Amino acid sequence: MQYLILILAIFGSALGQFGSFRGFPSQNAYRPTPTPRPYQPQPQPQYTSPVRPFIAIRSQQKDTSPDGSYTFSYETENGISVSESGYPQAGPQGQTEVVQGRFSYPAPDGTPITIEYTADENGFHAQGAHIPTPPPIPEAIQRALAANPPGPDDEKYDRQPFQQRFDRPTYNANPFRRF
């Protein structure tokens, strides 16, 4: 008798995981309302689907080479397009990847947004008409910078504290202080 109750409890808890209260829709959530009798006007079925509309891909291309270079591009029917190409390049710190590409999409107000970018050992550099630019340096600051050009001693002065601390070995026989 105890085993039967235990089996029913396990079966009931396993079956309870698949109810609509656990995040699964009930069986009638996505079905239209039943069709009324022929002499009544038929209402439009009400679907409560959380699924977004399907957006098709118009074109898609991908090409990879054994040397590590690649190109890909795609375009969707809602105006998004992406194209990118990359290749490996030997640099001073080992092999790096050089990537060039562009992407465009329509903004919510309908304005087309286009970004062209390059990425290499120097970082990611994007260009686009809508990317904000920093304001120009005020004239007073430009004059102050021009009046105080960097001198030949500036590099030596900046490195001196670093060299004093780390160029010669320091020995501390007793690292603990006694009071």
UniProtKB/TrEMBL annotation:
GO terms for cellular component: chitin-based extracellular matrix. Keywords: Cuticle, Signal. Residues 26-96, 145-179 are annotated as: Disordered. Residues 66-96 have a biased composition (Polar residues). GO terms for molecular function: structural constituent of chitin-based larval cuticle. Residues 33-44 have a biased composition (Pro residues). This is Endocuticle structural glycoprotein SgAbd-2.
